[in-house]
Design brief:
Blueprint (H helix, E strand, L loop, with lengths): L2 H24 L3 H17 L6 H17 L35
């Protein structure tokens, strides 16, 4: 596999992953999200046999534009991820500083 093919494959994989994440922002219920994920996979599979470079570039450009249009104003963030509601909650004290909270 050539380097150009590897780069193209990674571009498409990234686009697919970002599409799934955007869909998950809109469809938090698992059954609704799975239905949308199957639809997305069908869309990607329908275009995987494109061979003409202009058609491929147009399909990627259309997908990027659609992804930008569907961006959620308040995307889902896992509770324990940075920016989530439980991020760094109840941190364990640093064992190297046993009296960090006490004044001397």
């Amino acid at each position: 596999m050539s380097e150009a093919q590897i780069v193209h494959r990674r571009l498409i994989q990234s686009l697919y992953k970002r599409s799934l994440k955007t869909a998950q922002d809109w469809y938090i219920d698992t059954s609704l999200f799975r239905r949308k994920a199957v639809e997305l996979r069908m869309e990607f599979d329908a275009k995987k046999n494109l061979r003409h470079p202009r058609q491929i570039a147009q399909a990627i450009q259309d997908a990027e534009r659609q992804l930008a249009e569907l961006r959620h104003p308040d995307p889902y963030i896992a509770p324990t991820a940075p920016g989530g509601t439980k991020f760094e909650r109840n941190l364990h004290p640093d064992p190297r500083e046993p009296f960090a909270n006490e004044e001397h």
